[in-house]
Specification:
With 356 residues, the chain is an alpha+beta fold. It has two domains: 143 residues; 137 residues, Jelly Rolls (Sandwich). It is 54% helix and 22% strand.
């Protein structure tokens, strides 16, 4: 009776654990497995011992009923054999009795351990008495129908579906955020490309400005005679050294040599004026003739100032536009027409500028 109650207790605990989360499923399975295995082993052992004890008791009773004092007709061997059988039965009985006691002790220990575990499980699920346990077992056995089990499974399926939907929602949200981040990254890349383009434009503008600054080339020089003199006597094929510079952007004109060295390739315009002065009537070649010389080659770009009378001043000029490369040299000089020429100062000038 006690073993049947314990089995009902375990069954109730297992049914209750299937309905609530108070009892751990894994622990319940371990208790059930341990109970079934150990119970079966103990029950089989005890059953065999009972059968053997019953057989011995019958044999002993039969032996006692037939026991009598040995007659004179019985020989000594028969008596001795009878007592030897009786002793063997007693010895076998004692062995079985010890085995039964040992199995009984094992069963008691197993029952005590199982009772402790059942009581603990009962407290966990809120069951105080055995009567309440039996009522709970009957209630659970009646209520736990196939329909409810199906509904329970369906509920778990719905829970799993909700979890999957939540995971899908999270995945969709992550995908949206990923797309948003990629969109922002693309915008940042576009902004970066635009910034790089603007930076290139700025660098180009700066380079253009720098080149423009470097391409600002112009000068104006004037001939000033030394001391109190008002004119300078030049021989033929002589460089006119304009020793006073009003403006020299690009530092292309050299006042010492009177030569302009092209600092930047481009189209230049050169303008020059010369003033002639007839000092006396005896001058066979009173005109002042100058021309533009490029790289020591005189061009047919001349200015002829020809005074007629003594003390007469005449000014003449010319201009020239052409493409010049960096390093070319440009100057004004007298031609080979007159052996000497008197050129007045201050109104004899030489100018040039880079057009583009």
């Amino acid at each position: 009776m006690q073993f049947t109650l314990l089995k009902n207790l375990c069954f109730a605990i297992l049914l209750t654990s299937g309905q609530s989360n108070v009892v751990n499923d894994a622990l319940s399975e371990q208790v059930l497995k341990r109970f079934d295995g150990q119970w079966d082993a103990i029950w089989i052992a005890v059953s065999e011992l009972v059968v053997r004890l019953d057989a011995l008791e019958k044999r002993l009773e039969e032996n006692k009923s037939e026991e009598c004092a040995p007659s004179e007709r019985q020989d000594t061997d028969e008596v001795t054999s009878h007592y030897r059988i009786d002793d063997k039965l007693k010895e076998e009985f004692m062995i079985l009795k010890k085995a039964f006691v040992a199995e009984k002790e094992n069963l008691r220990e197993f029952v005590e351990l199982l009772e402790q575990k059942v009581e603990a499980k009962m407290k966990d699920v809120g069951i105080e008495t055995v009567t309440e346990l039996k009522h709970k077992v009957n209630l659970l056995a009646n209520e736990k129908t196939d329909k409810e089990l199906s509904e329970d499974i369906q509920g778990r399926v719905r829970t799993v579906e909700k979890t999957l939907n939540s995971v899908q929602s999270i995945a969709d949200a992550l995908e949206k955020r990923t797309k948003l981040v990629e969109s922002k990254a693309n915008k940042m890349q576009d902004s970066s490309n635009e910034f790089e383009g603007r930076l290139v434009d700025i660098e180009t503008s700066v380079s253009t400005i720098m080149e423009t600054q470097n391409r600002k080339v112009s000068f104006t020089a004037q001939l000033r005679p030394p001391g109190d003199a008002t004119a300078v006597l030049y021989k033929k094929n002589q460089i006119i050294k304009f020793n006073h510079v009003f403006y020299n952007d690009g530092n292309g004109f050299n006042t010492t040599s009177g030569v302009f060295t092209v600092p930047v390739s481009g189209v230049y315009q050169f303008i020059f004026f010369v003033e002639g002065w007839k000092v006396d009537e005896d001058n066979d070649c009173p005109e002042a003739i100058v021309w533009l010389v490029v790289d020591r080659v005189g061009l047919v770009i001349v200015a002829v100032a020809e005074p007629v009378n003594k003390g007469h001043h005449v000014q003449a000029g010319n201009a020239y536009i052409n493409y010049f490369t960096k390093g070319q040299q440009v100057l004004l000089g007298t031609t080979h027409t007159c052996e000497t020429s008197v050129i007045a100062g201050y109104r004899t000038t030489f100018s040039g500028a880079l057009l583009y």
